[in-house]
Amino acid sequence: MYTRVHGLWFEDGGLIIKAESTIFRISKCLLAARSTFFSDMIILPPLPESDMELIDGIPVVTLPDPAKDVEVFLRAIIDSSYFMPPPKPVQLSEVLGILLLSHKYDVGYLFCRALEHLSMQFYFPLAKAYRSSKNGIEAPCHIKFSSTQPNTSELFHIIKICKMVGADWILPMAYYYAYYHIQQADLLSMTSEDDEYHSRLCLSASRNLILSNLKMFYFLKTTVDDCLDSRQCNLVRQGIWSYMLTAVQEPLDVAPLDSFREDFWEQVWLDENSSQDEDEPSAFCVHCYHATKRTHDHLLRDCWDRLPFFFCLPGWSDLEVVRQTVFGESTSGNSDEV
Ligand SMILES: [Zn+2]
């Protein structure tokens, strides 16, 4: 009638946890030592035997949670090597199941560990993320999704659970991912009470994200007084513009934080020992290179700084205070690191 889970059924366990049609037999004391919810429950006077469900004479506690979440949660409590801190690879379903139930049943160290995993994927300093990978700011990290990139359901799961547990610092990038990974028609069709608030928030950021993307192209308008060869540098600007219009199907849909990454700047840099085609130059003079890159960096930083506001969230420094409070860290340090 019930399914017992391998590795979570101990003959000497004094408590049976039931979730859906799955049962787990574990140590009451171990669970109470890890979870204040269960320790409070266990010290309550027991129910009269007639009201108590028993399996093999062992009391049963029924949880309303999905069995798959309870399974990963109990595994993480019982097996200390099962849910290691990042960068150890983990499945997204494990992270979210453990995050949700460690919050609900008050297991502080697992709650923080699950948030550390999500923070590594969705919360990072701009400069480090942008410069360290040529694969884009969205390069997959150590969290394993069902495919190489998170799908709609996974992204909305992340967003809803982080919102529920107060991990707001993860939300700007989670919304940003959702906006660029989910078709607008799909966002518009998310009308369930649970999803609609978040899908509308993503859609309402559209104007600001497109504007940021447009602004990002302004770096091509940078005028440089001490340009060494204005004819050549203007040809480079025109070449980049033509490339953008032909190579990218929908230039306005380019994710602003992902435009003009490090490999682009390598292409427009002219090594002093190299030469280039005079009629079709690809690299700026040294002064235009630095001035143009400075403008781009400024625009990128501006977009990053405003990203949380696009999704009606507080700024990064306030989000960092929330993160430090949850992790019990001092908030007196540099909160502008992200
Ligand atoms: Zn120049």
UniProtKB/TrEMBL annotation:
InterPro entries (alphabetical): SKP1/BTB/POZ_sf
Protein name: BTB domain-containing protein
Species for this entry: Mycena pura
Organism lineage: Eukaryota, Fungi, Dikarya, Basidiomycota, Agaricomycotina
